[in-house]
Records
---
Amino acid sequence: MYANYRTQPYLEAMCHLIEQYKPEVILMGATGMGRDLAGAVATRVGTGLTADCTGLDIDDKRNLMQTRPAFGGNIMATIMCDKYRPQMSTVRPHVMQMPEPLAGADGEIIKVDFSIPEEQVSVKILEVIRDGDSKQKIDIGGAEFIVSGGRGMMGPENFALLKELADELGAVVGASRSAVDAGWMPHDRQVGQTGKTVRPKIYIACGISGAIQHLVGMQDADLIIAINRDKEAPIFEVAHYGIVGDLFKVVPELTQNIRELKKQGCGARVK
């Protein structure tokens, strides 16, 4: 019954667990399935739900402090559900930093035997068809090195410059929402609030001004390098290194310098 996701069986199972164990907090991934299930569960149990959180904390009254972008991504709001339980949030993949393993820590997996009669489930899965292009698609959410372009790229043909740099670094090419909306890059390469949240080792932003909806999707990268001709661009506020200049000159020179370093035996990719 639970091999393939269907809202109704998962909803009944979650509500059964909530009734049995009375949790104070429920967290789900802000994936397609997680968003669907979390909304249904919150409605059934009569509690609040904060979606797409980028930060979580607990106050001294055991309230879950849920931080997420608001008003179109122009501000960051902290939301609390202090009158109802359980408190529910969905969190986007790669938003939280992976903690170091805690030596000696253990846990218990509790298996609960629960199901509903199959004839009560209105949705039947007849066949699962995989996307034929899925093997060719790149998940930028898990990439260690990303070179992204924004409106400053001026057109889709100029992303070839970023592809050359990315190839030298062993990176993938991403894009801001403005570049995706313009049709220069596919949506699966979009970084930001309405795209993918990333946490790479190196993030190079080329021609990206740094709107907050983009920043919340990449600001936790280990190292951020920004290239922009506008020295007042907000992207420089989160960048570890900033280059104020024409990206059409800076990027090719950077690519060439990396090639020369590799020829000198400095490594085949960034470490």
Note: The first strand starts at residue 25 and ends at 29.
---
Amino acid sequence: MKKTISLALALTLVFSGTSLLPAGFDAVDTAVTASAAFEYEGFVCEDLVSGEVRITGNKGMSGAVTVPSKIDGKKVKEIASGAFKDNGEITSLYVEEGVVILPQAFSGCVGLESVVIGEGCDVWGVAFENCTSLKSVAVMKDTDVSMGAFDGCDSLESFFCYKDSPADSFCSTLDIDPTYFDDGDISFSGVYDVFEFKAANGWSLLDETGKQIVVYITKYIGGDTHLDVVVPETIMGFPVYEISKDAFYVNTVSGQESIVSVKLPETVKVIDAAAFCRCVNLKSINLENVLSFGMSAFSETSLEKAELNKGLESINAGLFSGTSLTKIALPQNITSIPSDAFSNTKLSEIVIPEKVQWIGSYAFYNTMITDVTIPEAVTQIDEKAFGYGVTDLYDDLGAYIGWEEKKYDDMVIRGYEGTAAEKYAKDNGFEFIPLVKPKFGDVDGDGDTSVQDVLLIQQAIAGWDVGISESVLDVNGDGLVSVDDAILIQQYIAGWDVAGKA
């Protein structure tokens, strides 16, 4: 980040009223360098002799404000007295770990509604006096709060902290009882960096017991300042677990959708309905750790590829509808492909997993798929799942005048006789090519079960690319390709009664 150097040199005397300091605190180091003041993303700062930074003011900051723990690689030691005094435009505040908040730093911020103070911070004197709209305060571990810090904050309704922490002792001066993070019974909102978030206890795939405090990203507020979004792994020390419904929906700034890429931490396991819907410039996002998707989570984006978690058991309607997706590998454990899941994409081929039982209406509508193999387990294929799309219409002068639906005359459905695949092909007038049920253990498809099939499985276990899908190599159907599959074939070759196959 660049910093703008002002012309005037700063030499600041620090507030030294010890009557406003919490017990046990020493007066702040008053020595500063004779360097110029500088600006950093709206903060007015100065360098200290210690090599740290002091925030002394702000340039008309408003809305959600995050005070960073470091600026240009230097630790932020403190927020000076009066740095944000009487700023009525700030609505929420997050102070990162280890920053001291000096008396009157935020006094008179009448628009401030929520404050989150990070771990190892200290709040001195009347730091937040007369913040008359302040409703919620959350204080992390090892952060001390002075008596009078929230004097005149008559709207304060909630105070979150850890039991028996320094902040817990402060609560005795308030007219409200604290809510303890330790008890897990919490739910409050705040702002961190370019995200609005909610911290709450609830069902979590991160904890074997299914219960823990996690963070939900509820809204992206970065506008066009962050085209490549990085979601943090933790906020306030709690794991970021979910991208909530509509969090990035129609991410528009001055009519132009902005975000291009998103990097998710391993902790994000849930992406809820329409979370990124209509972010038309979004081209990449890592999804390999996500275990649950809501409806239309990525519809009408520019995603070109998506790598899904191999353990994913279900996908939702409209998940990738209207994207630029050209290729995707569906996890082997999913049992259905719901309506519009991949409609209006650029897919030209798809492998339907062996466990899929239902393919919803318009699931692959208006794609480039003209040849598909349907597993025997599929018992239902709904309206226009395959073989239909749209074509644009133009007048004699080449002007666009609309569109009409078209049926793919070259559509081929491959499947087993007497199954939903044959019925769908015949009902829609598509060519049906019957498949011959493979002999048990014949993984190479040569019509015979032999040592060669055992060898292919052994090679696949060793990491070789044998060109055969895992669903075929997984002879015993346990979801894994292992020595058990090789042994099963050897037993079959030897004449054993392998589940009635011999």
Note: The longest strand covers residues 211-220.
---
Amino acid sequence: MTNSAPYYFDNAATSFPKPPEVARAISDYLSENGGSYGRAAYPRAFAASQTVERLRDRMGTMIGTKLVDNIVFTSCATMALNTVIQGFSWKSRKVLHTALEHNAVMRALSMMQQKHGISLECLPAHVDGSINLEALTQIDLSNIDLVVINHQSNVNGVIQPLESLRAILGAIPILVDASQSLGTTPLKADEWGLDFVAFTGHKSLLGPTGTGGLFLRNPDLVSPLLYGGTGSASDKYEMPEAMPDRFEAGTPNLAGLYGLLAAVENKPACSYQHKDFEHLLAELRKLPDISVFAATDFSRQGPVFSIASANLEPGAFGDRLYKEFNIETRTGLHCAPLAHRHLKTFPAGTVRFAFSPYHETKDFDYLLAAIRKVAR
């Protein structure tokens, strides 16, 4: 790795390092531009607005949609997910979700269940948490309002088969949590018929914290979560109907969005090969006292996986990795107790490792050697 602590493996929480252009873009905005988005027509404000719209176009390409005006920026994926879950036009009040959902989804759904009587049901899943498509075809879907899909698990890296779901689900709206996947895993919202895509800037996109967004194919299905000034239709008390203003109340995090644009436009090529990751998992599975939590089918594997030791609880294992080998990682439940219950690692959780394009083959070798020594 370069430009960072030598062995940072906590990229599923927040990616590090960022491309150097990210910090420069943020600094340039704060020190030289400083204009507000959509609030005036003088050059400084116009430049800020142009930058945000350039980012919107870039995100359209990454999400795989031509409906770029239907991409709105939020403070994080959690806000984007809550916008849909709390503002959705419910009819039958029934939701399907995967076995690997993050609490950004499950806490919002649980609140809706308790306060508004929403009914929740987990999609059939294989041992690794991937959706059992064959079993799904046997389920009565006639009264389902919404299906929520964690595109890539933040616990074991399983990538769900979005491209296969639409044919089974018919016209049922799909909300995709792309927090972990966007930036590393292809997404084709238009081709796959995805209705909503929530994303964050600070993980695989390598941008700053406090940035994220939401794609809405049909904005009329959702009421805004926030109400306030947009710089448009200022003569009315109601939110504008036009997109993206309808869902962008308040002044956006312009410094963060400048940084996110720089991240998207300057993402480095990956310094390791997929076979390096596959080899690492294969070697770890040979260790007698280590359980590996990853996709059963490696073609559905994102750059995240977890382990559990038969001899050390996750916190102690992670502590030794840091103190003895300077390896920074995440231990515990990773804000995903539903996933851990399915994987049978609740309540202790796991030790999680998440890669960055800055990792090199030698980092995988070092990690393997360290885990072997701690496991012994």
Note: The chain has a mean pLDDT of 96.
